[in-house]
Design goal:
Elements lengths: L2 E5 L3 H12 L6 E3 L19 E5 L7 H9 L3 E6 L12 E5 L7 H8 L5 H10 L3 H10 L4 H17 L12 H8 L5 H7 L1 H17 L6 E3 L2 E5 L4 H17 L4 E7 L5 E6 L8 H5 L5 E3 L3 E7 L4 H12 L3
Helix pairs in contact: 1-3, 1-4, 3-4, 4-5, 4-6, 6-9, 6-10, 9-10
Amino acid sequence: MSHCYAFNGDADGLCALQQLRLAGAPPGQLVTGVKRDIALLDRVVAAAGDHCTVLDVSLDVNRAGLLALLEAGVEIRYFDHHFTGEIPKHPGLEAHLDLSPQVCTSLLVDRFLEGRQRAWAIVGAFGDSLTDEARALTAGAGLTADAAERLRQLGVAVNYNAYGETLADLHVPPAELAEEMIRWTDPLDFAESSAVCRRLAEGFRADMELARQLAPARRTKGAVFFTLPDAAWARRASGTLANDLAKAHAGSAVAIVSPKSGGGYLVSVRVPRESAISAEAFCRTFPTGGGRRTAAGINHLPGEDLQKFADAFEAQFRVD
């Protein structure tokens, strides 16, 4: 009997995995990638009697791989907060799925573990932009304001690291980062003493200095549209920049479009929580689009569809 962990390479996926491993989950194969690499179950090699834990990737996207593994006799434990579609009814599937905008996968694992590794759940929540929920947990845990801020900075840096078109774009590949993280039971110690963590923080700061020089390509009331240059730093910066720009343009929807090296674009969309229109629903009107209500994206937007997307984004979110 073997174990496998298929997880998103962002802060939420990594911190969900970290909680489970620190709580005693057995060693196993790690299957992951850049943040947008979410069709992970097609890459899992397992047989009857094996176990696979899935973290922070859409069940709907992984449906074919999930069903194949279940039919092969693999036991699946699935934690996620993204669009599911119809959830298979199978005795081999243990589903922990919640699409509420107030949860992320790290918080679902925290719920499952009854708070036994809560500090890492807080890092994951901060990284997934659930700032209010993360701060509520820091207050409940009795953490100082300084400790809470360091956990926030760590979550942002770990989450930032997952953005890129390929693993070569990233400062640290997620599987390597997971193996570094497991050495640290306390995320504050990890942030203070890990050389790998310092590499993340320094790379993040350097890229954000470049990102701050950007100006909107299109802007109307309620909808702000940015295009990034064709550069590795820009591909890394796209997701975190989307979160930062959503805060800077509070009350407006924000779209960021990044050129892909093989042609076409990668798209990130953020909308306010009170928006009547879901970012996930809007992005799913384009092939390869998906995500969640307030934060979504399109993995590949053909170059000829850029104008169509920009017009649709502005028409959908413009406030008259």
